[in-house]
Every structure is written in C-alpha cells, then in structure tokens.
Amino acid sequence: MSDHSSFVEPTAESSADGRTIVIPPRTPMVALLGPHDQLLSTIERALPNLDLHVRGNEIHISGPPAEADLLERLIDELLVITAAGQPLNRDAVERSIRMLQERTRERPADVLTTNIVSSRGRSIRPKTLGQKRYVDAIDENTIVFGIGPAGTGKTYLAMAKAVAALQAKRVNRIILTRPAVEAGERLGFLPGSLNDKIDPYLRPLYDALHDMVDPDSIPRLMAAGTVEVAPLAYMRGRTLNDAFIILDEAQNTSPEQMKMFLTRLGFGSTIVVTGDVTQVDLPGGTQSGLRVVQQILTGVDDVHFSYLTSDDVVRHQLVGAIVDAYGRWDADRLRAEGADPALAPRSSRPPRRASKNQENA
C-alpha cells in the first residue's frame, strides 16, 4: 500500500445487505467526502448503480459487486492521497475513478501525488495519467516531444521539470524559446522596438516561470544567463551544454528550423519540444516541422514522443469537449476531401455534455 507511515488501510465487512467500509479514525470524513458531502455526490454520480450510506466513519455499500470493488479501491487511493497531505477535490476524484475504470498500470495515488516542484507554498503535480507519463518520459529521455491540444499542461509541466532540474543542479541554466510566428497578425503592426514586438510571443513562458520562481529573482537569473528567454532565431549557431531547453509552440517551426534547433543539443542537456499540430500558424504551403519530425525521429533511441489528448486537459472540462468536437470536425472534413482522417487531431472520447457546475482544473 502506501509508504506514508500515518496511513492505515480501511477495513471492509460484507453481509447479505452489502458491505461496509470502515475509515480509519485518524482520517476526518470531511477530508475524504468533502464539505457538505460534495465528493460523495461526485462518487454517486460516477457510480450510479451503487447505493451509499454514511454513518460516522462507516460507508455502507449495496449494489453490483464489480462497482463495489471499484469503490473500495477508490477509497483506498483517496486515503493515500490525503495521507500525503494533498487535499481532494472533484477533479481528483473524477480522474481517479476514470483511471480505475480503465485499469491502468499506474495507481491514481501515484499519479496525483507526484511532486515536480514546490514554490511559495504550492506544489506542481501531474493531474492525469497522460501527464504523469509525460513527466516520467522527461526523466528517462534526452529529447521529449509533448504533442497535444491546448490546456494539457505541455509547456507548464516542462517548465516545472526545468526548474526542478536547475534547483537540483542537474543543469546550469534554463533556455526557453518559441518561434515568432503570428496567429493572424503581423509583427510590423505591433508598436515598439523589435524586442517589444517579440515580447508578446514569449509572454506565456514568462508567465509560467513567474509561477515557479520567486519573481524578484527572475531579473537576476536572466542577467546572469541562468534563465534565457529568446526567439528561436537566436538559437542558430550555438551548442547548448548542461542546459534544460524548451521549444514551445513547435508546430510553428519549419522542418529546417526544427532540425536547426535539435542539433543545438550539447552534453548534459535535456530538450523538451511542445506543440499542437492542430494549431499551425505558418504561411500556406509551409510544412510544420513538428509534423515532419514525427516521421523522421520515431523509433530513434533516447527520443520520446508523448501524445496528450482531451483526457489530459486540465482547464475547464468544457475545453476537453471543445477539443473533441474540433477533432471530429477535422476528421469529417479530411474524409470528405479524400484525405486520411488519421491526420486529424487525436480524440479519445465520444461526444459528451459538460455539466455547467464542473470545476476549473
């Protein structure tokens, strides 16, 4: 079970009327079931064939044995999460149930209690199985591609791994870069100097960095070269040793730019490339380097491709439904044009309706 010394397994008792799970006395029921039983309501919606009654620290269950078994495993996982000092919310409960239903190798508690980096009293952790596999791949490979739709944490988690590597002195610097390609706009129309024009493209990287590093120390780190944020064009001709390098919005690179960037790799460095191949802003006729590189480097040792899907979206859950809807629309359009629908964005779920009261992730 858990490595937490304070964790005590719940006990289960069966009878002709069902079974009863007894929660260890040291675990407050409000921590497990939420204020006003909000998390209990979440469980009841996800497992509608079960009849649940709570008395004191006991949960009485009646219903199909398979769902009752799943609930017992769920309670076990949630207790491990709370024992690790992590508060539960609806999102964590829903994701834990989904992982148990899919019978994945990884336990929900192992996924949801993985700590990447802590800053100013908050910890950054993967929230989905796909995110956990993505951050594990970064630990195990020199070059990792994180490919998926908006809101899946591709860049944010890569940034967290970079900060953790710098804090652990596994690298000497962090280099963050993006191609300065417009989404329907032109640099020339933006006011100011070239740096002023480029800054909006790099702003998301600054924002993520501010979440993980003391903002007061960022100017000092940048002045010392410990943290560098620069357009992709600034990478040409360099060899980057002992660095954690992140290329964001890589779908907006050409194949030549992607090759240029990847060959900057020096000794002791890690590269993470992130992007969404469904949001290419390159001029018409220009191939996306992120699409081409999958054909070139798949199967190369020490290079890993992590594919995140709408299941890994950690913004409002309606974002996942939007991603899925666009994925089906793109597949239908390609099919009508006689193209391969496999070129459409990956979608892992059937159509669904999102509840108005679902939480923001």
Task: Please give a handful of descriptors for the protein shown.
alpha/beta, disordered C terminus, 361 residues, four-stranded antiparallel sheet, globular
Termini distance?
Answer: 27 Å
Helix content, binned percent: 25-40%
Q: Count the beta strands.
A: 12
- Average predicted local confidence, pLDDT: 82
Going by CATH, the homologous superfamily of the largest domain would be: P-loop containing nucleotide triphosphate hydrolases
- Tally of helical runs: 12
Number of separate structural domains: 3
Order of helices and strands: EEHHEEHHHEEHEHEHHEEHEHEH
Give me the secondary-structure category.
alpha/beta
Question: Radius of gyration in whole Å, from Cα?
Answer: 23 Å
Poorly predicted runs of 5 or more residues: 1-6, 182-187, 346-361
Assign the CATH topology of the largest domain. Rossmann fold
Gross morphology: globular
CATH second-level architecture of the largest domain: 3-Layer(aba) Sandwich
Top-tier CATH class of the largest domain: Alpha Beta
Oligomer state equals single chain
Largest sheet: 6 strands, parallel
Strand order of the largest sheet: 9-8-10-11-7-12
